[in-house]
Design a protein that fits this description.
There is one protein chain. This protein has about 240 residues and is an alpha+beta fold. The protein contains 4 helices and 15 strands. The strands form 4 sheets. A 5-stranded antiparallel β-sheet has the order 8-7-9-14-15. Strands 1, 2, 4 and 5 form a 4-stranded antiparallel β-sheet that branches. Strand 4 and strand 5 form a beta hairpin. Helix 1 runs antiparallel to helix 2 and helix 3 packs antiparallel against helix 4. The model has no long low-confidence stretch (mean pLDDT about 100). The structure holds magnesium ion.
């Protein structure tokens, strides 16, 4: 887990300097896949999906502005002022790592910068609550509280998840919920915590490609994700 998650972190760091106006999301995807394979690992998202006739075709998800998650890389050129969420999944020696980061393309508006900051802070708040003795929804409610205190909304239709020898495992880790409820956190659990935060409504729609999730009001959305290990003390961020 530590190895696959470290590769996730390195992929994001590798892509960061490429994220400039004019780059296509496909170029980012190609660079990510090359990098992942150079580490002796496999891209976990490529060929993933519930529908055999519509498997995810790329190594990263690239979701621009009102795209929340699961954007398919393609010919779209990133433009100054956009924000792009890059989600990376890696499999190495049978174990998975999952992480995401939202990047600014050139200079962005104050509103988008605040959306990104609050999403990062919400993830940090959730991780702070990820300790033995707490329950899953203690994480969820901490994320929700941080997000809604700034007037933004958390996506309800998609959630974080357990991760290990499969990309998605129990338990679901929603970004909303009541403290003191949900599965008790135990030492050794590995969770992908991933607030998806919308500027406006929490409602989302699915594009015709049946992958891309976007906000129903077309306002921007941000996404930050870490895979963490539950320990007796503070959770260890494996994708840091
Ligand atoms: Mg995930």
């Amino acid at each position: 887990m530590k190895e696959s998650c470290a590769i996730v972190a390195r992929v994001l760091r590798h892509l960061e300097p490429m994220i400039r106006p004019g780059v296509t999301t496909r170029e980012l995807d190609v660079a990510a896949e090359e990098f992942i394979r150079s580490q002796g690992a496999e891209p976990a998202f490529k060929g993933y999906g519930p529908d055999k006739n519509n498997l995810f075709p790329a190594s990263v998800c690239a979701s621009v502005d009102d795209e929340v998650v699961h954007g398919i890389p393609g010919d779209r050129k990133l433009a100054e002022g956009e924000i792009v969420s890059i989600d990376v999944g890696v499999k190495k020696d049978g174990y998975f790592g999952d992480g995401a980061w939202t990047f600014a393309v050139g200079k962005i508006s104050e509103e988008k910068a605040r959306l990104m900051l609050v999403t990062r802070e919400a993830l940090a708040e959730g991780i702070k609550r990820t300790v033995v003795g707490n329950r899953v929804h203690d994480i969820s409610s901490a994320i929700q509280k941080r997000v809604e205190s700034d007037g933004f909304s958390v996506v309800r239709d998609l959630v974080g998840h357990g991760i290990g020898t499969r990309l998605h495992e129990e338990p679901a880790v929603p970004n909303f919920g009541s403290p003191g409820t949900g599965m008790p956190l135990e030492e050794g659990m590995t969770l992908a915590i991933e607030p998806m935060v919308n500027f406006g409504t929490h409602r989302v729609i699915v594009d015709a490609d049946r992958w891309t999730i976007r906000t129903s009001d077309r306002q921007p959305s941000a996404h930050f994700e870490h895979t963490v290990l539950v320990t007796e003390g503070q959770a260890m961020i494996l994708t840091a």
